[in-house]
Design goal:
single chain, 8 strands, binds adenosine monophosphate
Length: about 220
């Protein structure tokens, strides 16, 4: 099973992906997190990606495809995995087909209006050390300025500045939204209302996933 979370920056893909991981045991793979880790560790890949990320532009398809190809080989992805932030272009979507095309999949778009996502992006903080995201509505520790998990300092993400956010939204509309049609044609596309409390959104996602998993079990029983 593969779950692809689809939606603009700030729509809640990371938060919902974590909940899917906790509930169903499918690891969340975030290309953004993996790239930020490479930037923090100053690997050659991180050095290549940093400038583009800070400008709100996409890193090259080849780089992210390699990251995903490598990550999904991990034995803990055998039962399934959740993709957060990938694919972001039609080329990436086609490449995923070549990498792991036989796997059953569901694409869930988290629909949120633009004003809400911009407000969320402008107010969130991340741990400078481990990358955990802090939302002021949910986490009181944001006020203390320290990560609850590792004690690292909480900072604004370099690409959560108004100018860069505008660019990321433009990139989303121009390069990522067309990916929706790709999955609509494959009949694996669903969408949920991404407004309201985190648990409410997750309940909507859970309904879709439970139905999908029940379908997989039935198909297996028939074999
Ligand atoms: P995210 O955390 O998903 O918002 O990603 C942060 C940044 O990482 C993006 O603005 C891109 O610069 C880069 N990035 C993440 N995923 C991808 C991807 N699938 N393709 C290209 N660039 C990506």
């Amino acid at each position: 099973m593969r779950v692809i979370l689809f939606g603009p920056p700030g729509s809640g893909k990371g938060t919902q992906g974590d909940l899917i991981e906790k509930t169903y045991g499918f690891p969340r793979i975030s290309t953004g997190d993996l790239l930020r880790q490479a930037v923090r560790e100053q690997t050659p890949l991180g050095q290549k990606a940093a400038e583009l990320m800070n400008q709100g532009r996409l890193v090259s398809d080849e780089i992210v495809e390699e990251i995903v190809r490598d990550r999904i080989k991990d034995p803990n992805c055998q039962r399934g995995y959740v993709l957060d932030g990938f694919p972001r272009t039609i080329q990436q979507a086609k490449s995923l087909e070549r990498m792991d095309g036989k796997r059953r999949e569901i694409v869930i778009e988290i629909e949120v209006d633009v004003d809400t996502v911009i407000r969320r992006l402008l107010s969130r903080k991340v741990c400078s050390s481990c990358g955990t995201v802090y939302n002021p509505v949910l986490h009181s520790s944001q006020e203390k300025g320290k990560c609850e998990l590792c004690g690292g300092a909480l900072i604004e993400r370099a690409d959560d500045q108004p100018e860069v956010i505008r660019q990321r939204m433009k990139v989303y509309q121009e390069q990522t939204e067309p990916v929706r049609d790709f999955y609509l044609k494959k009949s694996v596309y669903r969408k949920v209302d991404g407004s309201g409390r985190i648990q409410e959104v997750f309940d909507r996602i859970k309904l879709l996933l439970d139905a999908e998993l029940a379908g997989i079990h039935e198909a297996k029983a028939r074999e």
